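Running this now, will post back.
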Amino acid sequence: MRYHDTMFLALGTHFGKVYLLDVQGNVTQKFEIVQVFGLYTREGFHEHFDCPVKVVALHPQFSRSNNKQFVTGGNKLLLYERNWLNRWKMVTLHEGEGTITKVKWRANLIAWSNAVGVKIYDISTKQRITNVLRDNTSLRPDMYPCSLCWKDSATLIIGWGTSVKICAVKERDPTELRDLPSRYVEIVSAFDTEFYICGLAPLADQLVVLYYVKENADQMEEEIRARPRLDIVQPLPEVCEEISSDALTVRHFQQNECRDYCLEHSEGEPLFYIISPKDIVVAKERDQDDHIDWLLDKKKYEEALMAAEISFKNIKRHDKIGMAYINHLVEKGDYDAAARKCQKVLGKNMELWENEVYRFKTIGQLKAISQYLPRGDLRLRPAIYEMILHEFLKSDFEGFAMLIREWPGELYNNMTIVQAVNDHLKKDPANHTLLTTLAELYTYDQRYDKALEIYLRLRHKDVYQLIHKHNLFSSIEDKIVLLMDFDKEKAVDMLLDNEDKISYLHKLFKRDHHKGQKYHERQISLYAEYDRPNLLPFLRESTHCPLEKALEICQQRNFVEETVFLLSRMGNCRRALQMVMEELGDVDKAIEFAKDQDDAELWEDLISYSIDKPPFITGLLNNIGTHVDPILLICHIKEGMEIPNLRDSLVKILQDYNLQILLREGCKKILVADSLSLLKKIMKLVSRLITMMQFCNICSSKRRGPGSGILEMKK
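Update: finished.
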């Protein structure tokens, strides 16, 4: 009940004392009463009654309205109400069926019980509307008293012995009223229970039932009384479904009987009072915190954690369930499960993460937690990841390699780990796993040359993926042979698919013009597409490329210099010169081309094309003097034509002419000098020959006599 909006509990004893208790069970007031023959009201007025009062029920709005009414139960059911003279008026509502043991008042309905059954009285119409008879008449009503409670203003719940009935008060059809009450009662649910009912209270659509456990005749009397039970049941039309059950421990329960227990509840408050001769137990509906407590007591941490996550807005005490679960798993030795739970429990709390990592290190289980460390936007300090990598590197190369592949390189200092791997390779330089991992570290560090070197050394299948992914074609030009030895088919496919990036054929051609001659036709297209600067040198040096095909490609791409070379090589010099003059418009190149060909007709064509172009005439005047008679050009120049730098050009022609004269005179002098020198040498040789012949003639005349020399000469 409430008193001045303050919750308190009024408790009466068999010794005639009444105690007022607060919600913590502390006694706030005590009254000495020998026997209740009167009632004290809030206003302090004392009223005396003619018969002993067993039960009292106040009007539901007694403390909040002017309608001061209450009923008492003893041998009679009496209604008291204050009249306009401030005196109490008494009306007998029922009598003649024995002692009234229970009275409950809700809205305009008063329910009471006696040895015969339960009645309901409508105070608004002053009519009794029902009489629900007691089922099991074999039970003594004083030993197994009736329990009453209102669920709402129109639903009464009756418990008696092992029977429960739920009664709904309904309005009768006005057409059927006649002499009947305006309301009637319908029993909407009736079922039996296994134990004796000591008290009832509504809980939403369910019922709270206090049970006294049935006696077992096979046992001794002092052993037959068990602890009372507090159950929550779901009532159905003919049965009930048990939701929960708790056995209550109260003092001296072994000596208690059914009538020694009762259940009371405060309307509007989720509190239930279980009253026994020695104890009062306050029960309340379990909230999510209570449920989690129970799960934790049963060591059902997974379910407790799930319940906390679902009802995180409603729980008040349990903010460390996850850590308790992790601790429990660690104590059990289930380190992998404990590490796995860290992801959910620790979340984004970096401090908790680092504490757990160091704890796992202390118990030697860093490997267990390594798979679950944060590695996305949320990250720990690099030292944490490096510590774990070093741990793996000591004893588990495969696990180390797996972490390197799975962890982003930004998590740790890459150079620190590279140095650690190199230190281990000094002891075991042929370790395939460490070498592969080192290549991956180099790849992340963009040191592709070192990674490529390791992959080629290991003949690793990922070498081609590395080349393609990071465009390392320029790094493999001197490693083609190694790639061919490793996997010839893949190497050839790579060369052909990326011929624009790998200058393999170019290097082969530079080494030997004839070795790759079957590829020369293809090289023309490759040079034209990807390396034009080397196209013209290739055309000049190759003797195996098809000129017609090369000319077609160059003309399609409008490569003038290459086309000029091919036309001249194919003998069409006049067309080649025409392209130089018309498309290049370069007189110096045209003159150079005419000089190379040394063809008089080409000079005539060049002069004819240039005669109306003063810049070309200037170029010819400056360069033609040593190859063609300048008169041929000068004669074709129109009178009045302005020629840039004509004076300088004419001076140069004269200088070139004088130079030619000087050169001719010099050459003539050299020729004359050489001729005289050679003539003198010849004369000297001839004179030596004549002397020798004379000597021979003299020798012959001495041996043969006169006339033999002449004869010998004739011979």
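Residues 646-704 form the longest helix (59 residues). More later if anyone needs it.
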